[in-house]
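Priority: medium. Attachment 1 of 2:
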């Protein structure tokens, strides 16, 4: 059964912005910390940001100051606002629970050109 559906990725030039969305099932959304992960070619999957049920946030150093994670409990949706994008941000972006993940969705591709 599908639990996580990511959307909003695309092609963007360096310095541009994208807003990613993750629609989660109500059952897992309401019971877990939610995060955004990414996997770039040749690199392992990494946690980019997470947001707690009390709306506290945390970011990887590589995206701090540029990305903003948020959540809408009524919509069971997590967002990732990505500004000042760099080519090294190119990756497939996934949402999932933190720290223990559930089944992964398909992710959404973000490609940043120089």
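Attachment 2 of 2:
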């Amino acid at each position: 059964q599908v639990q996580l559906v990511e959307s909003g990725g695309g092609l963007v030039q360096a310095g541009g912005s994208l807003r990613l969305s993750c629609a989660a099932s109500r059952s897992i959304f309401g019971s877990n910390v939610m995060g955004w992960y990414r996997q770039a070619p040749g690199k392992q999957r990494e946690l980019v940001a997470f947001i707690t049920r009390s709306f506290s946030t945390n970011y990887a150093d590589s995206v701090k100051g540029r990305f903003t994670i948020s959540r809408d409990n009524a919509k069971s949706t997590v967002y990732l606002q990505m500004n000042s994008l760099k080519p090294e941000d190119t990756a497939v972006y996934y949402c999932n629970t933190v720290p223990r993940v559930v089944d992964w969705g398909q992710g959404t591709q973000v490609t940043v050109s120089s």
